[in-house]
User: What shape does this take?
Amino acid sequence: MKEFIAIIIFAVMLLSLTVCASAVTGETAPASNVLVAFFSRTGENYGVGVIKKGNTHIIADIIAGKMGAYTFEIARVTPYPEAYRECTDEAKNEKNANARPELTAAVDNFSAYDVVFLGYPNWWGDMPMPVYTFLESYDFSGKTVIPFCTHAGSGLSGTESTIAGMLSGATVLDGLAVAGTTAQNDYDAAEKAVTEWLEKLALEK
Ligand SMILES: Cc1cc2nc3c(=O)[nH]c(=O)nc-3n(C[C@H](O)[C@H](O)[C@H](O)COP(=O)(O)O)c2cc1C
Assistant: This one.
């Protein structure tokens, strides 16, 4: 009997060790099939001064909280300048060059996600180029992709169509645009905008 109990305890220990290890390496299927991937920048930004958490990041966290989703930050290996003007200049050059900057990390087990929220700031009426790198790094066939952006007046600037054109095998739903100043300075209004949008998409849990 003692031996039997010892075997059971050993098996349980082994199982929990395996679960811990695979959570670290990302090999198990994620508990949620929804991913919120976003690009967002800290530092000096339009109308909000120097910020510690990017405007789009704030919206990404609201969505992830409501959907019980995982978040993934899309980031360039070389960070963008802290100063606003320097950043706008660099981003413009990168856009004109149609660059695909290298990213800091990749999503574990991307195929396990059915729904991907994709967030970015409006940069020069477009998505930041690291978002292009991200979109070209994975197979989105069969997935539902839901864009959202923060901006300083330009809204989504047709980026939903750009995404739909790039991901022909995916279904791209109507996006959300939130002013960066609202995201940064008026949490309640930002949360309300997200809630109403998710309700319209009939997605909120
Ligand atoms: C490089 C750059 C280009 C931008 N271009 C635009 C633009 O064309 N239209 C617009 O409405 N806002 C523009 N903005 C403002 C950002 O979209 C806005 O501040 C956004 O909320 C920043 O999000 P983040 O804090 O997540 O990076 C630009 C900002 C930067 C840094």
In short: The chain is about 40% helix and 20% strand. The first strand starts at residue 34 and ends at 38. The chain has two domains: 1-30, 31-200. Residues 1-30 form one domain.
